[in-house]
Specification:
Layout lengths: L1 H40 L1 H10 L2 E6 L6 E2 L5 E13 L7 H12 L3 H10 L9 E4 L4 H9 L7 E11 L6 H4 L2 E3 L2 H6 L10 E3 L2 H5 L1 H5 L3 E7 L5 E8 L6 E4 L3 H11 L4 E6 L6 E7 L5 H5 L3 H9 L8 H4 L9 H10 L8 E4 L2 E4 L2 E4 L7 E4 H7 L2 H11 L1 H10 L21 H8 L5 H8 L9 H13 L2 E3 L4 E5 L5 E4 L4 E4 L4 H16 L16 E7 L20 E8 L6 E7 L5 H4 L1 H15 L2
Parallel strand pairs: 2-10
Antiparallel strand pairs: 1-8, 2-3, 3-4, 3-5, 6-7, 8-9, 10-18, 11-12, 11-23, 13-16, 14-15, 17-20, 18-19, 21-22, 22-23
Helix pairs in contact: 10-23, 14-16, 14-17, 15-21, 16-19
């Protein structure tokens, strides 16, 4: 009986084990099939989801430092900008997404495609900017379609705001998106594709101080690139602020005085070399660059015949005209080849060899001495004086007064100008210098070229007793907390090797130019202030090629010059004004400088 029972229970146990084994095998088979389905059949899909549902770091752009004038008034600020970006690895169908964005925003799909392709070397998880500074309407359209645009994000970034539009535009310069060459040249990896960088002017020159340090935001994102949660923020560090030497009020006056004319105005403090005014017209609005300039806008700027991108104060070179007579006068007196009593009879011109050199005054000035020759700007006197001094000594003293070489102001692309000499001509043309050429240079014509800032610096040096300062545009750099990062102090570039007696004589003669009845710059007078100055008319074409300036095409007409300082004793301001293609300096450039001088003394001596 016991054997039968044992056999029964044994068979039942084996039956149960078999059933259990079958169930386990079925479960394993089911699990294996499920794993096969998930890993093989749907592997790519779930791999995409797992890789994209993760933590990412989104860059947070640091606000650039602000720029203030000498009285701490804001010139350049920042504002929020809504930028359209995409994350390449989140784009399920890049072509379809770009086409849809182009339709929504009424843009050229090719431009969007080009922007995406330009970032192909960057990591695919970093945002790529397609369009900067969306309008409210454009922003609303994108947000309404966001569910159907995987990989598309809106980034809020600080954008440059040039508060006064095109005022001092060439001084500030502009910012733009970093290009590939600049990105490769950045060894510190502080920039990324889409970063804004200074491209010109102070924005470029002081890039390292203005830029700041970008931060980042750790976010968890879904497979479609949508933010699920913010895990951590690393706040950006704003750039340092620049405090300039410019005076906003005087800058406005200078640009308004130029009006629709083309030209430049520079005003310096002769006691320090600080730049009070640097105006250049025509100009451009740097806000166009801040929001992202279009190809058409860029083409219009670079193809503009009047070169609005050029800072005429430091980049344009012009014959100095009769303002150059101050350098010739200094050379003659220092070399003992002219004195206060030197006299010349001006009959309207003189023969030199077989060429007749005209005076600007057809009937002549009669008998003039050294002072009256400067006051009336007698060409014949300076033809005579220049032939005595010779080109090489003229070049020596002109260079000593800062002409024909960069001032060192610290802005890129400053032009040197040109003061010719016999050795220069031999190097340049492999020809000897001819004496007749000296006469043309003696009145600021011929090969002589200067920039407006050089003439302002020369006027300042004559006024302050012979110190050539290096012009300064930035007074100090401060952090946003107010800590002093850097401070600039007056820097002496050179001491002019001209005696105080000669400088005193030149100052007195220049005061006569403005205040004597026969002076050529009566329109530069300022009530209550003794102004000294020198006019100049720079010919664009030679006298023999023209009758009068007004009969010539606009682009061939004379340029007007005027340089000045004030007051006579203890000068506080020196100005150079250049107005292109308008004729005489006394009639057209002196009134421009007068407005700046008057505005300065209205502020300092109300």
């Amino acid at each position: 009986m016991a054997l039968v029972v044992d056999e029964y229970w044994g068979q039942d146990l084996r039956r149960r084990v078999a059933v259990a084994s079958l169930l386990i095998a079925a479960a394993l088979l089911l699990l294996a099939s499920r794993l096969w389905y998930l890993q093989i059949v749907k592997g790519d899909h779930f791999r995409y989801l797992s890789e994209n549902n993760r933590v990412r770091v989104r860059p947070l752009t640091a606000p650039r430092g602000m720029i203030f004038d000498r009285h701490e008034r804001i010139l350049v600020d920042n504002r929020p900008s809504f930028d359209l970006s995409v994350i390449p690895e989140d784009l399920k169908d890049p072509e379809e997404t770009l086409q849809r964005l182009a339709e929504i925003l009424e843009l050229d799909a090719e431009e969007l495609r080009a922007a995406l392709e330009a970032a192909q070397d960057s990591p695919r998880f970093l945002p790529v900017k397609l369009r900067r500074d969306l309008s409210e309407e454009e922003l609303a359209k994108v947000e309404a379609e966001k569910l159907f645009l995987p990989g598309v994000i809106i980034e809020v970034e600080p954008r440059r705001a040039y508060v006064h539009g095109d005022l001092a535009a060439q001084v500030f310069g502009y910012t733009g998106e970093i290009d590939r060459a600049q990105l490769k040249a950045d060894q510190t990896s502080t920039y990324r594709m889409g970063s804004a960088i200074g491209k010109f002017g102070l924005e470029q020159q002081w890039e390292s101080a203005l830029r700041g340090e970008d931060g980042g935001r750790q976010v968890e994102v879904s497979a479609t690139g949508r933010e699920i949660s913010v895990l951590r923020d690393v706040e950006p560090v704003p750039g340092h602020n620049l405090y300039l030497t410019l005076d906003l009020d005087l800058q406005k006056v200078a640009e308004e005085a130029l009006g629709d004319n083309h030209g430049a105005v520079v005003a310096l403090d002769p006691r320090t070399g600080e730049v009070l005014v640097m105006a250049s017209r025509p100009a451009y609005d740097p806000n166009v660059f801040a929001r992202g300039i279009t190809r058409e806008e860029w083409r219009e700027l670079v193809e503009d015949a009047y070169h609005p991108l050029e800072n005429r104060a430091i980049q344009s070179q012009y014959p100095p005209g009769s303002t150059f007579k101050i350098a010739v006068a200094a050379a003659a007196m220092e070399e003992g080849l002219g004195t206060r009593d030197t006299r010349v009879n001006c009959t309207g011109g003189l023969w030199f060899g077989n060429r007749y050199f005209r005076d600007w005054k057809k009937e002549g000035h009669g008998v003039v001495n050294f002072r009256s020759a400067i006051v009336q700007s007698c060409d014949v006197f300076f033809y005579t004086l220049g032939s005595r001094v010779g080109i090489d000594r003229i070049a020596q003293y002109a260079a000593a007064l800062g002409l024909g070489r960069p001032t060192g102001i610290g802005l890129s692309n400053e032009k040197p100008g040109l003061i010719p000499s016999s050795s220069w001509k031999q190097r340049r043309f492999r020809q000897p210098w001819f004496p007749g050429e000296t006469l043309s240079v003696s009145i600021g014509q011929g090969a002589a070229l200067v920039t407006p800032i050089q003439l302002a610096n020369m006027a300042a040096a004559v006024a302050n007793g012979g110190i050539l300062y290096v012009p300064q545009l930035v007074r100090r750099v401060q952090s946003v907390e107010g800590d002093l990062i850097e401070e600039t102090r007056p820097a002496i570039g050179a001491r002019v090797p001209i005696s105080e007696e000669t400088l005193r004589f030149l100052r007195d003669a220049m005061v006569g130019v403005v205040n004597d009845p026969q002076g050529t710059a009566k329109r530069a007078r300022v009530d209550g202030v003794l102004v000294g100055g020198k006019t100049g008319t720079a010919q664009v074409v030679g006298m023999k090629d023209r009758e009068t300036s007004k009969t010539l095409p606009f682009e061939l007409r004379d340029h007007a010059w005027f340089m000045a300082f004030a007051p006579e004793d203890g000068a506080e301001i020196a100005v150079a004004a250049l107005v292109e293609h308008v004729g005489g300096g006394g009639a057209n450039a002196a009134p421009v400088a007068q407005k700046v001088l008057e505005a300065y003394f209205r502020k300092t001596r109300p």
